Amino acid sequence: MAISAESALPEGLHPYAEGLEAGRVRYQSCGDCGAAQSLERHACQRCGSVRLAWRDAAGVATVYAVTTVARAPDDSFRTLVPYTLVLATLDEGPRVMGHAEPGVAIGDRVRAGFFRHGERTLLRFERE
Ligand SMILES: [Zn+2]
């Protein structure tokens, strides 16, 4: 039986969010073949194994896509606009989304930082 970790656990206890609270970027890797997973999976995208474990990434990534958010998705983000969001490819392979310093460009090498936003800790990349 497959239970979605996202719906089964309170947000703060999700391994990815828990990692951010501890100042770590986490990703899943396969316990059988070692493949790093992009996005959260319930089975390995390479070999189909369900033995997936969360690991800490080194926090260094390459910017894959950049966007500037001018309109806040909700009230809590209104004080931050305009802000920069990136999709960044961790050196370990998976892509993660996070805030970034203004002016970052596709291909820039960035390092993960963290900031408190309300009750949560969010990812913010800065140039290396
Ligand atoms: Zn695998």
From TrEMBL:
Keywords recorded for this protein, A-Z: DNA-binding
Pfam families: OB_ChsH2_C (PF01796), zf-ChsH2 (PF12172)
Domain (ChsH2 C-terminal OB-fold): residue spans on this chain: 54-114
DNA-binding keyword on record: yes
One GO MF term: DNA binding
ChsH2 rubredoxin-like zinc ribbon domain segment(s): 18-49
Highest taxon listed in the record's lineage: Bacteria
Protein's name in the database: DNA-binding protein
Organism: Cupriavidus cauae
